[in-house]
């Protein structure tokens, strides 16, 4: 029962805090333009250019390709393209961790789906099962094994790289080692526990107990694993590991936002609102109060 | 002094007066031929003892912040630290709304993957010196902010990175360190999380200026303050401006037989052309070339003689948001009052960014007037054959420097190279170029910062990668002095940096390396020109 509570609460807090963080960023005051080219949504300027390459740009339609933008987003989300392009050795281990996490997320969902299926009498197994049962079974095996291994390998190697790379060592704080070690510990305890049954029948049974609040006898290792995963899920969104939230805003509202403030545009309304705000803090240098400063 | 390889961010708090690192010529990135031989480069010098007494030379021996002077009393020292911390706190408040979100993102999410270092031309040029690693100064700022303004920093200290001693020397070094970055944002292009170390750098500059009243004299006292007072950062007042134009008209007629008349305050003009006023003083051939081309193409344009109407610069965007806003709004108002349909920014990169990007959200509605770059129009004039051009007149090696503000930060990539491809038979690109270009080393004010030994840092380090790019582009022709080699830099600040590096390396004298803007090449190619417009072709 307590483990069920830990599982539900940690997932709830993970999602809740992440959404709250995203909401806080979304609600932040309008900032000045800081786009950086290439901006993928610029249609017709695939060489990295923009609508500013046109004469009287304001009188022409600003053609935007959301498909290109989504394509770039997917390259970043699924492959961490910028790291691949600019720092290949680091990419291998960082990508192992991230791909591992993606697969573990998929595996967790498959365990839940598998558990619900079994609770409803649908057999999930390697044989004597229907197509659905076979699909869930094999996908769980593949995502679970590869995900746990890649995640543990990636987080472990990132710790080692930070410890033994002369540059990274200088900039890595104890907290940043802790972040990686927490993930590593959560995954290693999982590998030790779930590794005993790679068909993941045990995992599905435990999942079924957890989601239905059914009491069950849990070993010390399983309790440790579930508690560690719970702590990790709550800690990630409050730490800088919540960069999955930040990254959306760095690209979409900063680097890729080149919407000009034209008369009648949505941006104009935001600018109007932002300029009507009177800050509660002011700067103190003498020239800020210069008498010849124009009225805004 | 510390071996730079062992330098840590917290070393910024080391004892008073101790210079953290010293650059050595043999440790810098090697230059390409013909500058790969010993003795081809001026030596690096030590700061004068008097400077050590007066300024902060304890970073790397260079002085960029000439208004930052050592305190005489403990009280002054404490006040300096207090003011910095007060400013640091303010950058996270509504006093800084215009950059709050991007700042918080970069402040919070750096994963310390170090991908940015290989993108930084100053870090590369310095021979990978730790002091110039893009995350070095960002991390120092994070450490101080965490120590004083975060709960985790106050409670856990070094465990979360808040492990730095904060004293006068720490803050002063950080102030200097903010002027070891050109704000080119090349590092931000490579960051897997989309973070921007240039924001952190500029915030340090802003704290110094907006809270502490400390900024380099050429940017502030003789820059934005002078511009707001006289109308131009050159100090060029209206009568002198009009005299200059008259002189240029006479000079153009005398030299080229062209009866030129600059339209000034012309009623009913379509376009108000804004030049960097420095052009009239340092490179008058540039506004002259614009005038010749616009007349030839039949553009209905004018210059303004109103205060703030004849100087496009806005140094505020490099160090002080308040100054930037004042200037941008004053320039906008001049154009609006004048009644033109649009402003066209001539060959000045930071003026492009200031008026088209930074100024874009400073006002709205009827107070705004459309602003555009000169480059698309110049290309259109060539493409539409409105100008009769003879490319053979430009038959010498030409390469293009991409000003960061126009290319990486505005996306104006093709028009200028299209012009060069059409009118320069020996045009060749630098590597890399376009949005991946390197800064000239003069960005964010470096080109005009000439206090103490700062030009040495600029010319030997900040511009080093660019100089190598230039040498690379002209390989095979460099050592033939009879062949002029032209660096096209369509930006006043970039031209300032080019002028400085060519002098520093005596490259014009030794190898006939020339520089200038884009319009000069266009006028040089005009069929109607009876003699070369470019002076170096006259011999």
SSE inventory with pairings:
The complex is a heterodimer of chains A (296) and B (539).
Chain A: H1 2-26, H2 66-79, H3 81-86, H4 88-119, H5 131-164, H6 166-171, H7 174-194, H8 201-211, H9 220-238, H10 243-255, H11 266-276
Chain B: H1 49-54, H2 74-90, H3 100-109, H4 121-125, H5 134-149, H6 151-156, H7 168-177, H8 186-190, H9 197-211, H10 220-230, H11 238-256, E1 271-274, H12 278-282, H13 285-297, E2 301-302, H14 316-319, H15 321-338, E3 342-345, H16 349-357, E4 371-373, H17 374-383, E5 398-400, H18 404-407, H19 414-423, E6 427-428, H20 454-462, H21 464-473, E7 485-488, H22 492-504, H23 507-511, E8 513-516, H24 518-525
Parallel strand pairs in B: 1-2, 1-3, 3-4, 5-6, 5-7, 7-8
Helix pairs in contact in B: 2-9, 3-9, 5-9, 10-15, 13-24, 17-19, 19-24, 20-22
Description:
The complex is a heterodimer of chains A (296) and B (539). Chain A is an all-alpha fold. Chain A is built from 11 helices and no strands. Chain B has 539 residues and is mainly alpha-helical. Chain B has 2 domains: 9-214, no CATH class; 227-537, no CATH class. In chain B, 44% of the residues lie in helices and 5% in strands. In chain B, helix 16 (349-357) links the parallel strand 3 (342-345) and strand 4 (371-373). Chain B starts with 48 loop residues before the first helix and ends in a 14-residue tail after the last helix. The model of chain B has no long low-confidence stretch (mean pLDDT 96). Chain A: The chain crosses the membrane at residues 6-23, 90-116, 136-160, 180-196, 216-238. Chain A: InterPro entries: NarG-like_sf. Chain A: This is Sulfite reduction-associated membrane complex, transmembrane diheme cytochrome b subunit-like protein DsrM2.
